[in-house]
Amino acid sequence: xxxxxxxxxxxxxxxxxxxxxxxxYDVFPEFSATVRRLLYNPMGVLILAALAALLxxxxxxxxxxxxxxxxxxxxxxxxxxxxxxxxGLRGSIDFEKARAVEGExxxxxxxxxxxxxxxxxxxxxxxxxSNRGLCAEEDGAQLGETxxxxxHIAWAPHRCTIRCRWIFVPARRGxxxxxxxxxxxxxxxxxxxxxRALSIATPLVVWPRTYPVGPVPMVSGDQQVEGNVSRxxxxxxxxxxxxxxxxxxxxxxxxxxxxxxxHDRLIVxxxxxxxxxxxxxxxxxxxxxxxxxxNDSSYEWAIRIVASLAIGWLTAGVEVRAAWNEQVxxxxxxxxxxxxxxxxxxxLPDAEGMPLRETMSRAACRGLTDGLQIIVTTDxxxxxxxxxxxxxxxxxVVLQTEGFLCTGQTAPAPPLRACGNRIxxxxxxxxPDHVPPLLRxxxxxAQHGS
Length: 450
Hints:
By secondary structure, the protein is α/β, with parallel strands linked by helices.
């Protein structure tokens, strides 16, 4: 009831409302939660029944002791049997491969050894994995369907080793299992579910999802190293770009004899420069500038953008260097660089990170001015990190927080302001749906070719 409606109630109505609030006010919420946890379950109900039977046997009739003994036997068996069952079980989880991508189907395997002289029933694997798909029946193990509550195993034969498999679809990047998986059982009565940790034979590193990207944007004076990537700059290899008058030191092989005869002077061909540009990627990991939750948060999309630019340009022969927080991945274009970058992005924590201004002020980032520098952040992060015009070697990829907000969530700061000295984003992304097309053709080199 609102404050306005309460003011229009008569005195008796307001008194009743006040008494109802006082009688339902929880003075000790933590104690109440503990009581609910203990009593609002089958074991709690049976404990109360046993105490009631004991009191009836003590004060009313001796037959109450018989009921007390029966209920106590059920409690003892329901508590001890799951504990004894799990004492004889050992298990481990592994995956068919060491690395996967968000949304990719991966087969997971559970190896379970039952050393007990009796069969274990009602087993389940919980925690650490968002289980989806179906379990298969292998080596005598009876498995049911997987669900959000875990993987259910009907029974495991005594003195046998079973191997179960199921399809696991990781929805987000990370190192799986995200927490220690547990094998549990509540058989026979389900009064108390005992748990035992499973070991991890081979963890699964899940890389962020990547998208096709356009060519590297041009920047004057960018640092390059020798390689085999042709660029529209003058060099000594590659395709012919044009002609010019001969200069002392030019190779005779580059003389264009037809043009030389026509102009009555030596004319040489200008060739493309075969070189690899160097690109430095900087990721803003400050949680205070990102919005949204789960897979569609601006934080996760910023990671996917960095991964897409890195993998796309590494495939084209570019040397890529990445930096966030205190971590710097040195520039390289070898076959191991994509795995190094994606592994580091997969292992990034969710709620940790320093402000972008501090990241860019570190010596490792201040020394990146010779190459092309790509900064991926939100409009809030850019507004906090800069107070002047953009440098010629910088390109800002900005995610607008309004397009990544969850229902009921508010932006951490005012949106981007259109001021004269503010940075004009190189790519301005206003929603997750526009990330793939903008990465593929959001700048002039991608639209018209480099």
